[in-house]
Amino acid sequence: MNSVLSPELMWIGSRCYRVNIPNDRRNEPERVNINYEEEEFNCELDAEDLYDEIEPIDNGTKFQLKMHIPSLFYSQIIGTKGATKKRLEQETSTQLTVPKMGSRDSNVLIIGKSRKDIISMRNRLDLIVVSGRAKQNFTHFLSIAFTSSQIQENFNKFKSQILNDPEINGIDDSLFQKPQKLHLTIGTLSLLDNEDRSRTAEMLQDCKEFIIDQVLQGSELNAKMVGLDYMNDDPSAVDVLYAKVVSENLQEITNGIAEYFSSRGFMQLKGDQVKLHVTLINSLFRDNDDAIVKDENQPRDSRDKDQGNRIKFDASKILKKYKDFNLGEIKIKEIHLSQRYSKASNGFYEATGILKL
């Protein structure tokens, strides 16, 4: 169904929003001005869920709610000469106090005469944060390491064959991923303070009971890395060459995790499925050996330095000779919330959170 007639529903905590993107700007996510409508059927649920968070003050004549918002978004909430803040207060019949920059208090304070008014303000602030977060370069990513001894050995074998093949030109050592950092990316996130990092780490733990256990039903999670493919239309001018990952259970699990994080405003996705792949060669590695690719599941952001100038490489002969290359099987035991531009003692990325399967 057309997305205008059936717009996307976005859940933030227990709140549900209908997100409407102006038609003439649908292909420009970094410039989109998000309009929203709160789902009417969820208003009563919101009030019930937030009941304990909203505190009565002034002998019960007023109510207040403290809400954490990363300080980066304070200026968007206040607006030019306080215009946005004033409009929000008028629309919701509330008073909003935003901490001063540098303050130890990281919570905005909402005061109103009714819980309904406070919830209305909170919903508006949630959407400002979601819209603002989408414009930031990502800082973390949900990852699964494909770094077993067998896979690393086969990857090094593949790399050696490519570099020593006289028929393959224009490929050098700097283009290859480090074997200790081979990974599948479920999705990328912009986490802007300690509260963001703590919250998403807890969300990752939630995925075991509500997503992973429901799929596996006590069985192991296994995957194969078999076959090569690329992310361009022309195999002679390629940015990324990757190994395909095969696992029905993993596909279902990664889809569920991505949808969960996306619905809560921490991740943007395109398409219905996470692309199961592990990058082997990346043209960005020439200048940045820690580049992480935003594939077709991720909206491109021209401000991201990892999306800068590329020098494409010719992968046509690699694909012809090694298209069915088998890098091995793996038993997946962990899912990481990984820090971008980091390196742990084992050579993989530092983890903000780890989910043990």
Automatic annotation (TrEMBL):
Ranges of residues in domain K Homology:
61-130
Molecular function terms, GO-annotated:
RNA binding
Query: Which is one Pfam family of this protein?
Result: AKAP7_NLS
Q: Which GO terms describe its biological process?
A: DNA alkylation repair; regulation of DNA-templated transcription
- CC per GO annotation: nucleus
InterPro entries xrefs: AKAP7-like_phosphoesterase, ASCC1, KH-I_ASCC1, KH_dom, KH_dom_type_1, KH_dom_type_1_sf
The protein's UniProt keywords, in alphabetical order, are: RNA-binding
- SUPFAM superfamilies given in the database record: Eukaryotic type KH-domain (KH-domain type I) (SSF54791)
Protein name as annotated: K Homology domain-containing protein
What organism does the UniProt record list as the source? Answer: Chironomus riparius
* Lineage, top ranks: Eukaryota, Metazoa, Ecdysozoa, Arthropoda, Hexapoda
